[in-house]
Design a protein that fits this description.
α6 (about 160-170) runs antiparallel to α7 (about 185-200). The longest helix is centred in the first third of the chain and has 18 residues, at about 15-30. The protein has a single domain (about 5-245), classed as Jelly Rolls. It is of the alpha+beta class and about 260 residues long. The protein contains 7 helices and 12 strands.
């Protein structure tokens, strides 16, 4: 099956990608342990460091004094016409015991995180009144780059879910001009489509090592698997860098 059909693709180990990941890991570890960032980004009872836009890379993904970001994933994005200048990379760190309950999350939200991998489509934010969702950050794609060797808490994706999400959102927004999409409440549409994905799409765990990489469609339903008994990770936790650059034109979000 192709990327267009599945909504995700994984790439084999590449020396250039591995070199970038090694340098990024060295930059990411002290940042993820810096109190000014842990105060902001440590969640789920201290078991998840969110690390949004943490790395100081340029639009090509290159870090100061580091090697270029290169490899088959980059070539794929460029070849498919998906490439857009990169945002500062997120560094998602999972620690043993993820997820744990916290005061910042309702019991229902915790159960969804534990039992459904906190499944979501990126960019749909709970910023409208009564925690309703709208399209706040129309991402172009999600590029995942493991920074260390860990078996714990892999990325989870519901294969083919991007088709269900696109059809649902396209129908909901059909009569709405793109310039108004960002203020439209799409909560009910999203929740119904998510339920359909759970019922009809195969849940895939994307397990990858440094030097490997994967790309997910921007509308794919995805999440993070809980830490299971027997999972292992280095002392710094399971660490993955994600690039999620925003589209310049929201109208292309459903293209």
């Amino acid at each position: 099956m192709s990327f267009a059909a599945k909504g995700w693709v994984k790439f084999a180990h590449d020396a250039a990608t591995a070199k970038w990941a090694d340098h990024a890991r060295q930059r990411a570890i002290p940042l993820a342990q810096d109190p000014q960032y842990t105060k902001k980004w440590l969640r789920c009872g201290g078991t998840w460091f969110v690390g949004v836009n943490l790395l100081p890379n340029d639009g090509q993904g290159r870090l100061p004094d580091g090697p270029p970001l290169a490899g088959p994933a980059i070539a794929f994005l460029q070849r498919e016409g998906l490439w857009t200048p990169l945002d500062p990379a997120q560094v998602s760190v999972i620690y043993e015991g993820y997820p744990k309950p916290s005061n910042a999350e309702s019991p229902a939200a915790f159960r969804f995180r534990r039992d459904r991998d906190a499944a979501h489509v990126d960019g749909l934010k709970l910023v409208l009144p009564d925690k309703r969702r709208h399209v706040d950050e129309p991402h172009g794609f999600v590029l995942g780059l493991p920074l260390n060797e860990a078996s714990a808490s892999p990325m989870v994706v519901w294969e083919g879910s991007h088709h269900i999400m696109r059809d649902a959102f396209a129908k909901r927004l059909e009569a709405v001009p793109p310039e108004r999409w960002a203020i439209e409440d799409i909560t009910d549409t999203y929740q119904a489509a998510r339920k359909q994905c759970f019922e009809t799409c195969k849940r895939i765990e994307i397990k990858a090592l440094p030097g490997e990489s994967y790309v997910m469609h921007r509308l794919s339903l995805h999440g993070v698997a809980p830490w299971k008994d027997g999972d292992v990770a280095p002392p710094e936790g399971r660490m993955i860098a994600y690039f999620r650059p925003e589209l310049d034109d929201i109208a292309t979000w459903l293209a």
